[in-house]
Specification:
Helices cover 28% and strands 24% of the residues. It has four helices and five strands, in the order H-E-E-H-E-H-E-E-H.
Length: 132
């Protein structure tokens, strides 16, 4: 199965319209392609207590896991603004739990940028040795 980046970005753009971002005004949509070809989406959901804000990427991961999908191939991110953005550090760590070789594509302002998750998170936290 080949990855249709344009289609994945279109899903991210569409879900971005549902973002709840009254505090930052920065709406984000994410579309996550699973190994079985299914696409799972998420958008940011802000909260007045900023630490409780849910990132779009985490929402998409949660939707994938809730559907029984933990093998992830690609993530498309769509943001409002002039420059593509990479996932935040917390999102990188969560994505790395499921897909250390994930392809990450971001778009904004008619521009695209792409990374591997390994480039964005070269030294992820792993299980503590001796703990299960």
């Amino acid at each position: 199965m080949s990855l249709d980046v344009d289609q994945l970005l279109a899903r991210a753009r569409a879900v971005r319209e549902h973002a709840y971002a009254p505090h930052s005004g920065f709406r984000v949509g994410a579309a996550l392609l699973a190994d079985d070809g299914s696409v799972h989406v998420g958008c940011n959901v802000e909260n007045a207590s900023y630490g409780l804000t849910l990132c779009a990427e985490i929402g998409a991961v949660s939707a994938a896991v809730a559907s029984g999908q933990t093998g992830l191939r690609a993530l498309a991110i769509s943001v409002e603004g002039d420059q593509p953005v990479a996932p935040c550090g917390a999102c990188r760590q969560v994505l790395g739990e499921f897909a250390p070789d994930l392809r990450v594509i971001s778009e904004a302002g008619g521009r695209r940028q792409e990374w591997s998750l390994a480039e964005l998170l070269p030294a992820p936290f792993r299980e503590v040795p001796g703990k299960k």
